Amino acid sequence: MAAPIIxxxxxxxxxxxxxxxxxxxxxVASGSIGLLxxxxxxxxTFMKCLLQLLPFDSGSAKLLGREVGREGRDIRxxxxxxxxxxxxxxxxxxxxxxxxxxxxxGLPFQAAxxxxxxxxxFVGMGQERYRKIDTYxxxxxxxxxxxQAIVHDPEVVFLDEPTNGLDPRGQVxxxxxxxxxxxxxxxxxxxxxxxxxxxxxxxxxxxxxxxxRVLVHDTLQNLKARRRxxxxxxxxxxxxxxxxxxxxxxxxxxxxxxxxxxxxHSGEDLNPLLRLMHSLEVPPxxxxxxxxALEEMFVKALAENSEESSAVGASN
Amino acid sequence: MALxxxxxxxxxxxHVGIWSRRAVIAGQGLKSCLQVxxxxxxxxxxxxxxxxxxxxxxxxxxxxxxxSIVVEWLSNLNPQLQAxxxxxxxxxEGHPEISVRTSFNLLFYFFSNSLMTxxxxxxxxxxxxxxxxxxxxxxxxxxxSKALSRSDYLLGKFATVLGLMVLTWLGPVCVAWFMGNxxxxxxxxxxxxxxxxxxxVVFLGGSMVVLGVLALGVSAVSSSSKTTTSIWxxxxxxxxxLIPIAKETKPWLxxxxxxxxxxxxxxxxxxxxxxxxxxxxxxxxxxxxxxxxRERSRSALETPDLTGxxxxxxxxxxxxxxxxxxxxxxx
Lengths: 316, 331
Known about the structure:
CATH class of the largest domain in chain A: Alpha Beta
Low-confidence stretches of chain A: none
Distance between the termini of chain B: 40 Å
Radius of gyration of chain A: 23 Å
Helix content of chain A: 25-40%
Number of helices of chain A: 11
Number of strands of chain A: 14
Number of strands of chain B: 0
Largest interface: A-B, 48 and 41 residues
Order of helices and strands of chain A: EEEHEEHEHHHEHEHEEHEHEEHEH
Low-confidence stretches of chain B: 1-5
Radius of gyration of chain B: 25 Å
Oligomer: heterodimer
Shape of chain A: globular
Number of domains of chain A: 2
Largest sheet of chain B: none
Structural class of chain B: mainly alpha
Strand content of chain A: 25-35%
């Protein structure tokens, strides 16, 4: 495993009686990391505690090899953060704001101004950069937040729900930008989202958090491999014959509302499934391997956690 | 298709130090304050006051020297004044340590106090631009996520309000001193008025620190600009209203007045009592008149309530520091 960018041991944070982070022990390598979890799971709290925007209660954490809580200023020099909520300075125009953020990170004025314009170009903002931020649309504000987060060329950038409030086209654009930061420029990206599609699209590693606990931490590839035996089969007819044959092979299956058949074929690849369909002379229109693997993993992890919590509650 | 025309470039330059970053916060705060039209008017008024002070010092300088243009001109107006004027100025000329020091000290005390009113108005206008708007717009999160600590942020904001007070208060006073001396009949004025300047700088410096802390505290009370501005104006006006009430009821109440406390500190720093005494004993012809003034203001001049003022201001500052500590957080 490459040198971790995040390392936490029993990292905990409480809000009164609520455990926002419950002894989180994690070791995350550089890359694009998706923090997944339902609303209120503790994703944002985890980010904020790492960035020291919130004090943590116990445990220890290292970000980029530096002790969180002791080397805050130094850590934040190497880290960018785009919060979920709007956080601009009223009355400022876009380029002035990004320049100001760059200067707060320690860039000299000339460099800050030049870099601000480069970043605004990068996030696709044109002449609107000379307008007051108060007049921006949600999409522009999201772009601006991304620009201010990367203006000082950080090693890691934390993005909290960066596609919130965007239309589908805007979501795609922002996700492509984020993906490019990782793929083309080597910046580690930590993306917090409750939108599985966003994470599925750009992240290499997944951390699923619920009720302040890390339920799953693995690469997306491994997670999908765990669900390798599932597929969605689209056929023109003879659904019943096909499902009967799946049943005879002890492959659980169901007919979905869209007419597709979902089958758990337990094979490492699609060959057994294709052989069976060939023997039955049912040509597939389409086969979708491992559909919604992340979503299933997410739901399963949450369900397991919920059962576990109930069991603990009952035993008490 | 690429969504952006410009590729991301890594930056490998040298970072500036933490003091420069604090100065960036201060500069931005000051710029934001100066965008308020009324703030610019107030600052202009303060510098107008400095100009008046320079003119006053010019005439004072001319009066204190026997062969100056103004004395000549006055003598020509009324020959009877000539003898009195000559006698007085020749005496004053012989005792510049009294005449220059005393007159400059008195003038600087009144000038500093009169500019305090404008400064209080300027702070009232600046209050929303210090912390209030950062709280309401969540900009505080952005500051906290950069390579800055909370104390860096607060120092930057403190420097903003100090910078503003330099523009409305300390700057006009110091420039008035320099220009007044530059236009004086001889260079000795610089030397003999040094104490007046020192008193002014000490009094204004101390007052600026106090007002700066109080302004930060009030600015952090709420995320509503109207609320924080009202609290500042209320603190000032209610404090002023307390002075006559305290006289009739409980004298310690007046120490809850910002203006009263600063006035007491001003009296202690400028030591006007000594100036009046020196003038009364040494200036011929006017001794009785000066004695009468001193008698009327005996209590204020001779025993300024320094301890009470320091306790009052200390208490207010402590409350403001607690407010800042509790309120200035990213969450």
